[in-house]
Amino acid sequence: MGSFRDSSILILETGRTTIRAGLGVHELLKAPAVEILARVGFRQITGESSNGVDTNGKQLSNHSDVSRAQSSLPYHSNPSAKVNDYLVGTQLDEALATGQDILISWPFADGDVRDWTQAEALWKYVIFNQLQIKRTQNESPVILSMPAGLSRDLLEQVCQLFFERFNVAGFAVLERPMAQIYATGLLSGVVVDVGYEQSDISPIYDGFILQNIRTSTAIGIRDCENYLANILRSNQSVMAAASPPGFPVDAQTIQQFLLDFAQHIWKEGLVRVPSDGQTVEVPEDEGVTDIAAVLVAGKEKAVIETGMKKKATAKASAAEQARAREIEALDLVTVEFRGHSITVGKERHRFCEPLFDPTLLKPIQQIPVRDTQDQPLPLQDAVGLAARQADVDQRQYIWQGLFLTGDLGNRVKGIGIALQSRLSPYILSNPEQPTDVQPRSIRVASVPEYFAEFREKGDRLAAFLGTSIVAKIIFNESQTKSFVSKPEYDEKGPHAIIETSPALF
């Protein structure tokens, strides 16, 4: 089993809603060169119905893993569709932008593979279109990271697809939580991956995921966006942009504007999460009056910039300096969004509240209804209960690596510390009185800053970074059994992948 050139190694991270990829591993590990939504589109033909959705719009899954919660993201199965029938990436974006009638499907949203043809269409687009690899001259080995807990049959199907359809030179698979914890330099911890619809919690001990206590809670970024969008309805600056005076728009358009703006706010890094016991102080009537006065005066942008710089000019009058301090205390920011200058205050920091208290979502009518009879567990309870199920002697090591990752990652300031502070009921209240049952502290893990390409975004891209680290090791070790070579595949077939996955022995 020979080694491969570092420049030929293909890293492919496949999450529930996003695919990231890059070609080559170097001394300085690179951020992903490709990042696309893990969705496909199919042009709807008049009168044609999809086999993947019933008359009530409920998703019908074509896999047998009933232990996984089904996603509410759309899934449409078309047994007669070929790989090239699906629109992916920029083709899909352009079709949607021009208003074409497109059926959208998310083949990985359940945490496994809903539809193999759709999965192949996505991977094919990334490998051959975006990374410009030639199938007939494919000298690239591939390492694929996917959600944890996949079955043997599924892994064998993935292995077969990559060798027989993509002609890869070698193939390895890595579970996402392991890639994420490797990116922090740890072998034990608890990975909290906050996704679009749900958050996955994976306790890890000594390099192995504790599969029997891995869990999820049906709360995610979408809920936070809906929650903040509802709060922003009380902000006159936001509503004036959503529905300009004299040009009223319908309720659905307003709601979509608010959702898009809420997403823009957190992706721009304008949200921070208070720790447990702290609150986001939203100004009462007097504060609202002050904000309105600033807006009416038309000087909010200049005043906010002064407050953000935390200094006033030497020529500023005492009244101007007092006003600057007042605006700084209100924590106002002006956001440029779709041609509007929109002012928002401390209410934006309430974005993550539903993660820690899902009951806040009950009064909001825009939250999509899910097929679940149970109230989602708050994130801190889901994490705490999962870790509590670990063996007593494992818990102290697990709690020394609390790693919050996912798209929120580095974009939402303080979210890891906020989760840590809410987990205090699961550890000793008095560290001076240790017991064998509870650990004494919780340590928040993060991606080290010496990964220069991942500074300020490493926690968000931890799965890709960890996969790159593993790729650099396994594809340069001639004696390892951490990947399947083409000769091995020819000899043993798809089952060869099982021998490279220690968790499946």
Largest sheet, described in full? Answer: 6 strands, mixed
Radius of gyration: 25 Å
User: Taking all residues together, what is the mean pLDDT?
Assistant: 85
Strand content: 5-15%
Alpha-beta content class: alpha/beta
Q: Counting H and I runs of at least 4 residues, what is the number of helices?
A: 16
- The side-by-side strand order for the widest beta sheet comes to 3-2-1-6-7-17
Distance between the termini: 21 Å
Low-confidence stretches: 49-67, 282-297
Q: Estimate percent helicity.
A: 25-40%
Tally of strands = 17
Keywords:
505 residues, alpha/beta
What is this entry, summarized?
The chain has 505 residues and is α/β, with parallel strands linked by helices. The protein has helices spanning 90-97, 116-130, 152-164, 176-183, 221-231, 236-242, 251-267, 285-297, 300-309, 318-330, 353-356, 379-388, 392-398, 415-422, 462-474, 486-492, and strands at 10-14, 18-23, 34-37, 40-43, 102-105, 141-146, 170-175, 189-194, 199-205, 208-209, 215-217, 271-272, 333-337, 340-344, 402-406, 412-413, 484-485. The protein has 16 helices and 17 strands.
